[in-house]
Amino acid sequence: MPNPIAYLALMLWPLVSVLLFKRLPPERAVIWTILGAYLVLPPIAEFDLPLVPDMDKFSISSICAFACAVFILKDNVRIWPRSFLAAVLVLGYILVAIPTVLTNREPIVFEIMAQAAPIRFETGSLPGLRLIDMASVLSNQVIVLLPFLLGRFYLGSDKGLRELALAFAIGGLTYSLPALLEIRFSPQLNTWIYGFFQHSFAQMMRDGGFRPIVFLPHALWLALFMVTALVAAVALARNTQGQEQRRWMVAVVYLLVVLYLCKSLASQLYALGLVPVVFLAPQRWQALLAVVLAMIAISWPMLRNFGVIPLDAILAQAEAISPDRAHSLGYRFDNENALLQRAHEKDLFGWGGWGRNLVRHSETGEILSIPDGRWILTFGTFGWVGYLCEMGLLALPMLFLFTRMHKAGRSLSPFAAPLALILGVTMVDMLLNDTLVPIMWLLAGAVLGYAERLRLGPEEAPRPLFADGPVIGRGPRKPGRRTVL
């Protein structure tokens, strides 16, 4: 149970956001309003308000960043992607809520059949979705996309991408300190400060030691963030010189040690694959690898359905590394199989909310299978339409970046391809974990905005990049504060 400090921290974040937007450049203000909330605000704690989505650290930070951009910076925020395909995916992601609600109006009833007579005893039920729920689901979809739209507008430039890489690296270096504290003394910071532990403590113990979690939903989230920080630090080390480059090289080695101590095999494998690529490979190869990772993530459900994925071989390899990890992976695969069967009953628009997508005991309603991966959670909730729109919005920026790199006609940002790789590996991790957080949506929007920029020829550079599409704002900003994108 969160203590008053947890709720006070959530309530104070709008004030923190205002201070960030008043004191920092727009790019940094947007980044740290969202990234800072992810790293320091309490997980799970939320305000349950009627007719609107739950207000937790994800939704609060997204709303605050957007509101501050509109009312403090007074920017004309052009929210609509220039790409027709991206615009269609944005519409589909939001509007899928309508058919999902309309096709899930019926309640799900759990009942016991009497043995001697055709009598049914109802033991419980899940409510059907009401038309009034449609507004809540629609608004939740919009809130989720706010960081994506802000990233596209504010960070889709050379400066924006560098600021994002710098924020990831600094955030990881700073967060390593409480992480090392928990590795040494056990994960207790969330309990000490916010009054509760956010997950199963047993899952924080691995290989005779502790895995840090700090203020994130799970230790796996923290390990993946350390991968993000590590890749960003590698990109900074490759693209700096002199004393600054040596400092970033030291940071890379330090983050490698911290990542090893986080005891997450998947994240260690990500780092093992990405660090040499970002250090040595040309940008086009990096962008190509990001596209390949995205295609693997998108095609996973279809390959699973056709039985193409060699699950037994994957488990055998995991068994050779660690029996405990093989058991955990096997448990995930078993859950996926059960949830896939459930999702196929309504595979176009999904089951909607209220836990209707979960596998439950037909008599007691007890939950028998819990989704771990983001993909199966989205697929079960919004069906193929929601899944393809979400994964498409994440993959499209990488595809655009790769296809337009050779047509740019100018030097590319050295951080575009490494950030695309971070996005690609996050999509792969979403097959195992629900690790899609607002900062990743912000990153996807930044890469999309930059890829859209690559379409402009040199003679078109002075034109406003976002001259078309819907506008939200209150007129031009004050002289001297205008952000040039």
The string of secondary-structure elements, in order, is HHHEHHEEHHHEEHHHHHHEEHHHE
Figure out the total of helices: 17
Global mean pLDDT: 87
The rounded Rg comes to 23 Å
Shape: globular
What oligomeric arrangement do these chains adopt? single chain
* Main sheet: strand order: 1-8
Poorly predicted sequence stretches spanning 5 or more consecutive residues: 457-469, 474-485
Helix residue percentage: 55-70%
Features:
single chain; 485 residues; mainly alpha; two-stranded antiparallel sheet; two-stranded antiparallel ribbon; 17 helices; 5% strand; disordered C terminus
Task: Outline the structure in words.
This protein is mainly alpha-helical and about 475 residues long. The chain has a domain of about 120 residues. Helices cover about 60% and strands about 5% of the residues. It contains 17 helices and eight strands. The strands form four sheets. Strands 1-8 form a two-stranded antiparallel ribbon. A two-stranded antiparallel ribbon has the order 2-3. A hairpin with a 6-residue loop joins strand 2 and strand 3. Helix 6 packs across helix 17. The chain is globular, with a radius of gyration of 23 Å. The C terminus is likely disordered.
